[in-house]
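Reviewers of the previous submission asked for a worked example of the structure-prediction workflow described in the proposal, so we include one complete record here. The input consisted solely of the amino acid sequence. No template or homolog information was supplied to the procedure at any stage.
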Amino acid sequence: MSEQQSQEVQNYLRRTVQAGGTPQDQQLVFDPRTGELVVQTNPPPDAVVASTIAEEGFFGFMHKSSYIM
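From that input alone, the workflow returned the following structure tokens.
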């Protein structure tokens, strides 16, 4: 994963926590070729979307109530 892709995923998760929900303009998607999460604006219909899982805190981000900026 490139540094830019890593930063995009971190920004996506940060936006999810701050907004209390999934960003409407992006989706967090599992890339089966690399085994990593990537951010996409229009994932293909057969993509494994992980946005809801991220919103629920599965990837280890703190909930909004305990998030410190």
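The first strand starts at residue 27 and ends at 31. We consider this example representative of the routine output the project will generate in years two and three.
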